[in-house]
Amino acid sequence: MTARTALAAAAAVARRPGLWGTAVRQVLRLAPNGWWRRPPFLPLPDRRYLEFRLSTQYGSTGHEPEPGDVVDYLAWCRDWRAAARRQRRAG
Questions:
Q1: How deeply is 22 buried, as exposed, middle or buried, from its count of CB atoms within 10 A (0-12, 13-18, 19+)?
Q2: Number of domains in the chain
Q3: What pLDDT does residue 69 have?
């Protein structure tokens, strides 16, 4: 993913404060163990995982993620987590 795409996705998420916590949680969840010990010292997901996710989303490995799709994914993560919490309480 290019820096331009990452910034566009971050800007799209920044406009939605209700997704900030989910975004941080997902970044940390997808970051490989010990990410802080290896350059570039950022919690970036494994490149192979990201390529797999992009190819299943868009059908090709060269496609960059769309900012709106990142927002939709985070909203889905937030909603799924809330549904799981409700399920546990009702269970």
A1: buried
A2: 1
A3: 95
The total of other beta-carbon atoms located within 10 Å of residue 91's CB is: 5
Q: How confident is the model at residue 26 (pLDDT cuts 50, 70, 90)?
A: very high
1 pLDDT above the threshold of 90: no
d(CA 31, CA 8): 20
Token pair, residue 10, equals 């971050």
Q: What is the CA radius of gyration of the chain?
A: 14
The range of the structural domain enclosing residue 82 comes to 3-90
Phi and psi at 51, nearest 5°, equal -60, -40
CA angle, 34 then 53 then 5, to 5°: 80
- Return the structure tokens found at 23: 């975004």
User: Nearest Cα to 53, choosing from 66, 42, 41?
Assistant: 66
